Amino acid sequence: MSEDPLIAVEDLNVSFPGRGGVTHAVRHASFSVGRERLGIVGESGSGKSTTGRALLGLIPRPGVVSAKRMSFAGQDLRALPDAQWQALRGRRMSMVMQDPKYSLNPVMQVGRQVQETYVLHHRSSEADARRRALAMLDAVKIRDPDLVFNLYPHQLSGGMGQRVMIAMMLIAEPDLLIADEPTSALDVTVQNEVLRILDDLVRDRGMGLIFISHNLTIVSSFCDRVLVMYGGRIVEECKAIELAAAKHPYTRALIKAAPSLDHVQTELSVVTRDPAWLT
Amino acid sequence: MSQQALVAPRRSMTQWLDSDAPASRRQAMLGTLYRGLGAVLANPSSLIGSIIIGSLFLVAIFAGPIAGNASPVTQEWDIRLTPPGPAHWFGTDDLGRDIFARTVFGARVTLGIVMLVSIVVAPIGLGVGMLAGYLGGWVDAVLMRITDVFLAFPRLVLALAFAAALGPGIMNAVIAISLTAWPPYARLARAETIAIARSDFVAAVVMQGASTPRILLKHIMPLCLSSVIVRLTLDMAGVILTAAGLGFLGVGAQPGTPEWGAMVSGGRDLIYDQWWVATIPGIAIFVVSLGFNLIGDGLRDIVDPKSA
Amino acid sequence: MIDVQDLSVTFRNGGRAVRAVKEVSFAVADGETFGIVGESGSGKSTILKAIAGLIAADAPALTINGTAMGTQRNKAQRRLMQFVFQDPYGSLHPRQTVDDCLREPLVIHGIDGIDAKVMEALADVGLQPQHRFRFPHQLSGGQRQRVAIARALILKPRILLLDEPTSALDVSIQAEILNLIARLRSSYRLTSILVSHDLAVVAHLCARIAIMQNGQLVELLDAASLRSGAAKEPYSQELLAASRGFTRATA
């Protein structure tokens, strides 16, 4: 599936110095992403979101990122100057966050926001950018792009807002999209429509996608490959369709802890944490 | 707190206070107090403010010993308008009274006004605001329109009118200031109450069958109180200035009482030749107002780090 | 035990009226756990709050144990049913310790032996004595939800209303809380209503399930037919399919 990896990470560590000592959010993480759908699953505090942010150079100030290797399409991301990060972020790699409500500018029409993003990266004429923005809104399956273009974020439903976000992130045609819980704030039926859009975009444009989620059902049914994180470490890496046959005790416990629609469970199994998983 | 905790070394005492797993109600309470105090002292502006206001309290309590044998009211005509010097640190005024002693005793008057105003304003503001916010409907409409009426008047003018109607005197000045100061508190408490009343923990006590007074006093008031206290400390500078203003205009403290505003007023004719008579109490007003403002600023940062 | 007959709830916001719940009827038997599923805006939480007496229904629609109930309830009626909220961060008073929180209902109802009852309630939900004097910010999300459950059960209610009790929690913590609820409902002989957006959670705990959409009850079915896909309504089918995960084929 991938001849040259888009992202290659070796021994990534992220730590935050704090009052009570240093917190290691990510420890010794190594993985690569090609033009595929890579899922990262884990519970809160597992370091999955921090990993995604580290790839975009978005770890806030006191945080320290170190890695033996961290490259994007052959370009070394370690100690990249700010100006080059700017050129890379948004243009070649983008991020979609959990809640569109907080990621869109509340006092600007959503269409204009999509359009601005295009202008920012492509220096095109106003009319051309507008045409592109409308086409992009159409591509994320918004039924009436001309109408939605002029709406403000509070006038959109959750699913619609998330589509606009995706349109905004994709209009620059990035090679890699990092989606952090993009469907967690959405209803299940809407969730699948948004996933379908992402799915089409990966297939049609050959984009790489890192899909960060806590939901095992979605990740196993949507992604190609899955990384399972626990306590800042990648404890398991496997093909998504083989997740049910996972080897690591944490992954297996997590699968068994979720109530299932397929069979009756008298009691859900509880995850007993082994300190050895952290070494 | 047991005997053991008292004799134990300092380090374990702070550990006991800062414990994440308090073992008794008392430890939990003292721990909260300790962390709150730590936060106040860690913030530079509230630290400086606390030092200023702390000193003000000490000066007010020990006014007698600090002033020594000088009296704030005794007039010595042969030493009228002595400039600051070793015998009279801040000099004397036009009636030969020691300004240092007057300033020191003036701290008592100022603190008295500040405390009286707080005692009157906070309960009225909280009461009106919480009732309006929690009950809503016509109660809200009536209470808030009354509040608006009071808000519509310029504060000093209204206080002046009250003071003139009630007659001059410190107590009347306090009443006048309080009557003009409560409306913003009512608005603040109302806004907070509306937000808190929507929360699940209030719904939970409603489900338990708690009465309305119990919900208001035990569950909503403690959360409104912190912003009211912040607002109060920020307003204290204004209260001191208004009190001084009323004293200056002759409707506050009466002649003879060592009140800073009245002292400034008394020295106003002498400002070019005997600057110290009006300047020294003026500086006192400035420093104390600054102290309250700094505490208020710091508390606001601590209570609500977002709005900093 | 709980009888809901033509329950409607209308919210008025300025001049606009929104009918959040439209003529919903169902009955819950003594000792049963009834499930309500739906997406956001389906009115599922509103039904629960109307039963709890926190929201007024348009017309009297609720009978509990043969007694009609509105929003005005006396202490004994309040004690009959308790509520567990979705957000464990918003349902505990931020300035009150676990102890304050658990003792409050006992004080309101003038119940004796407070200390013993508080300790018993803590043990019941799997908390340790050292948690007793902690503040909510010193507890994890799962621990807070345990406190909320302890608070609801300390008055020994007959009915427990659960509003998305695990949706703010991680999967592993959700399993612990769901097991706790399952254990407590049999030891306290509770009648309960569980509201959730998660079909799997509802199917796990409830025998009978109501599916809601836009304020209306779309379908009432039992857990077995839900699992086997015997739902009749198209919306129920759609919800069920979506809950089973992403399907590439239907694209």
Name the features.
heterotrimer; A: 279 residues; alpha/beta; Rossmann fold; six-stranded mixed sheet; five-stranded antiparallel sheet; globular; B: 308 residues; mainly alpha; MetI-like fold; 0% strand
Outline:
Chain B has 308 residues and is an all-alpha fold. Chain B is built from 13 helices and no strands.
Question: Any overview of this molecule?
Answer:
The complex is a heterotrimer of chains A (279), B (308) and C (251). With 279 residues, chain A is an alpha/beta fold. Chain A is built from ten helices and eleven strands. Chain A folds into two domains: 189 residues, 3-Layer(aba) Sandwich (Rossmann fold); 69 residues, no CATH class. Helices cover 35% and strands 24% of the residues of chain A. In chain A, the strands form two sheets. In chain A, strands 7-8-9-3-10-11 form a six-stranded mixed beta sheet, sandwiched between helices. In chain A, strands 1, 2, 4, 5 and 6 form a five-stranded antiparallel beta sheet that branches. In chain A, α4 packs parallel to α7, α5 packs across α7 and α7 runs parallel beside α8. Chain C is built from nine helices and ten strands. In chain C, α3 crosses α4 and α5 runs parallel beside α6. Chain C is globular, with a radius of gyration of 19 Å. The relative contact order of chain C is 0.17. The chains are: A alpha/beta (279), B mainly alpha (308), C alpha/beta (251). Chains in contact: A-C, B-C. The interface between A and C is medium-sized, with 36 and 33 residues.
The largest sheet of chain A is: 6 strands, mixed
Task: Output mean pLDDT of chain A.
Answer: 87
The strands making up the biggest β-sheet of chain A line up spatially as: 7-8-9-3-10-11
Identify the biggest protein-protein contact and residues per side: A-C, 36 and 33 residues
Q: What pattern of helices and strands is seen along the backbone of chain B?
A: HHHHHHHHHHHHH
> Which fold does the CATH topology of the largest domain in chain A refer to?
Rossmann fold
| CATH C-level category of chain B | Mainly Alpha
Order of helices and strands of chain A: EEEHEEEHEHHHHHEHEHEEH
Number of domains of chain B: 1
Helix content of chain A: 25-40%
Parts with pLDDT < 50 across at least 5 consecutive residues of chain B: 1-8
CATH class of the largest domain in chain A: Alpha Beta
Structural class given helices, strands, pairing of chain B?
mainly alpha
Structural class of chain A: alpha/beta
Name the shape of chain B in a single word.
Answer: flat
Spatial extent as radius of gyration of chain A = 19 Å
